[in-house]
Amino acid sequence: MKHGLILGKFYPPHKGHLHLIREAKKLCDHLTVLVCSLQREIIPGFLRVEWMKELHSRPDIEIIWVQDENPQFPEDHPNFWEIWKKTIKSHSPFAIDVIFTSETYGDPLASVLGCQHIAIDLGRNQFPISATAIRESPIQHWEFIPEPIRPFFVKRIVLTGSESVGKTTLAKKLANRFETNWIPEFAREYLEQKPTPMDESDFLPIAKGHLSSEVEAAKTSNGILFLDTDLLTTKVYLERYYGSDIPWLTKRALGLQYDASLFLDIDIPWEKDKLRDLGDEREEMKIRFLNAMEEAKRDFFLIKGDFSEREKLAIESVNQIKKWPISPQSFTKEQIDLRKIE
């Protein structure tokens, strides 16, 4: 049996990595992939290992997590190569016949390990991408992020504020402008289909339905996802109408983090419909929402003016957000768990 080995950070995995693994597997019987992580890195190692196993679910490709806090460059330690030789051999399930890389370190590492080195796309001509580039600007390099892990890199932007401030209209326009998904307010859809008036028991299914919609829409979003309100809004209205608290909702309303929020001001006319009844409390509700944003520790872009001015401000804000690097909070176990629908 010919045993091949690949090692890397996969921080994050990208389509160049997948190409390296596909081509390497053609040249060996069993391929071991070492996912090497450091505790200080933004994307935790456990998550990268989960991603790699999801992307390579076959018995002849073995994904192994390496957590050794090794030096990263030869100049970092005089015994650099021996340290890595010990780590690699202790994690490899079989003797190593060949290592595959797309890096210049492949030859010296093979010499230390006493095996063959095969370079694949060393010049990165087929996949001109690096994990560093994705970390610095994921939306700019969206095409190189494997589809199953894209939801972690989506910029989630919440449109928030009290009723009748144009959230739905603006969310639709932004989704169309940036060619991506938006999530309508789940409460409206839910209550329009409900044969009886709203009561306190409706708030938990509304919250779960809205969160479920977010999770699903993120899977097919084109780098950005616009949310017409979120669970913080649901919490605000629960407190306004019933003065009560639902622990499941409160935990997520205050704990879930988003890349950005657009806070829509009340400086446009209030329009009545069958689900709106707080036209005489606009200032009070604005204050409630601002207090909720502060409680949840959320910054926001203030969107005000007439409809055309709002759209212009929102587009300018989103164009800024598009350039942002990955957000550390997107990859924490806490945020992953909070988006699970129990």
From TrEMBL:
Protein name: ATPase
Record domain NadR/Ttd14 AAA: where: 156-310
Domain Cytidyltransferase-like: 6-55
Gene3D superfamilies xref list: HUPs, P-loop containing nucleotide triphosphate hydrolases
InterPro entries noted in UniProt: Cyt_trans-like, NAD_biosynth-regulator, NadR/Ttd14_AAA_dom, P-loop_NTPase, Rossmann-like_a/b/a_fold
Top-level taxon: Bacteria
Pfam families noted in UniProt: AAA_28, CTP_transf_like
A molecular-function term among this protein's GO annotations: catalytic activity
Lineage, opening ranks: Bacteria, Pseudomonadati, Spirochaetota, Spirochaetia, Leptospirales
